[in-house]
Amino acid sequence: MKKYKLIVTAIIAIGVILIGTSTPITNLYKSTNLLNKGFNKIEDNKDSTKGESKDAKEPSNHKKYLICIDPGHQQKGDPNAEPVGPGAPYQKARVSSGATGVATKKPEYILNLEASVVLKHILEGKGYDVIMTRESHDVNISNSERAILANEKNADMVIRVHADSLDNSSKTGASILIPEKGGKYTSNIYEESNKCAELVKKSMQESGIQLNGIFQRGDLTGFNWSKVPAILVEMGFLSNYNEDQMMSNPEYQRKLMQSVADGVEDYFTTK
Ligand SMILES: [Zn+2]
C-alpha cells in the first residue's frame, strides 16, 4: 500500500514538473520564431537591395485602399453645437436633418443612405475596403465624429454623399465640394481631395451627368475635422421636381454612383 502511494505521488510530481516547464518551452518556441522572423527580415532586406525582390514590389501593387462613405444627415438632426474645427471658436449644429424631396417627399437622409449603399457595393466590387459612418437612420453621429471616425481608421479617401436644396426650384445639377485650399484646418488635405474631385468630375461628365462644378468650402465641420482627403458629392437638387424624382430612380442612382466610383478608381490608379 505504501509502495502504491509512492507511485501515485511520483506521477503527480512528474505532472507538476511537466506543467511547470511547459511555459518556458512555449517561450523558447516563441523566441525561436522571433529569431526566424528576424532572420527573414535580414533576408528580405538583402533581396530588396537587388531591386528585384517580389516583397519589395508588394506595397505599391497590393495595397488595399480604405474608403469611408459618409451618408449625410440622420433621422433626427441634433441642434446641440460643436466646434466647426479643432479648437475653433465658431460652433454649428452637430448634425442637421437635411432637406426633403419636393416631389417624392423623401427626406435627404434616406436618399443619401440609399445612394451610399449602391456606391459601397460598386467600390467593394472594384476591390476596395469600405467603411460607412452609418448604415441606419436612427443614429446620432455628429459631423466632427464622422470625420474623426475616418481619421481613426486612416481612410485613404472619404466620400460624403448629400443632396442639395434651394429656394429656386429651377436649379439642377450635381456638385462636388472639397476642403478649402487655404483653409485653417484643411490646407493639408486640399491637394489630394482636389485631385480626386477632378477625376470624379471627369468621370461624371463622361457619363453625361449634369455637373455644376467643384467648390471649395471652408465652413463645413466634416471637412475641417478631417485629417484624410475628403470630397462631398451633392447628387442634385431635391428642390427641383424632376431631379428629385430622378435621384430616387434606382437606375439613375446606379449610373451616378458608378461614375463617382470610376472617378475614385482613377484617382487611386494614378496615385
Ligand atoms: Zn445634406
Automatic annotation (TrEMBL):
Which UniProt keywords are listed?
Hydrolase
**GO molecular function annotations of the record:** N-acetylmuramoyl-L-alanine amidase activity
Q: List compositional bias (Basic and acidic residues) regions by residue number.
A: 40-61
- What is any one of the record's Gene Ontology cellular component terms? outer membrane-bounded periplasmic space
- Region (Disordered) location: 40-62
| InterPro entries cross-referenced by the UniProt entry | MurNAc-LAA_cat, N-acetylmuramoyl_amidase_3
Instruction: Offer one example of a GO biological process linked to this entry.
Output: peptidoglycan catabolic process
- Which residue range or ranges hold the MurNAc-LAA domain? 147-265
Q: Does the keyword RNA-binding apply?
A: no
Protein name, UniProt field: N-acetylmuramoyl-L-alanine amidase
Q: What is the lineage of its organism?
A: Bacteria, Bacillati, Bacillota, Clostridia, Peptostreptococcales
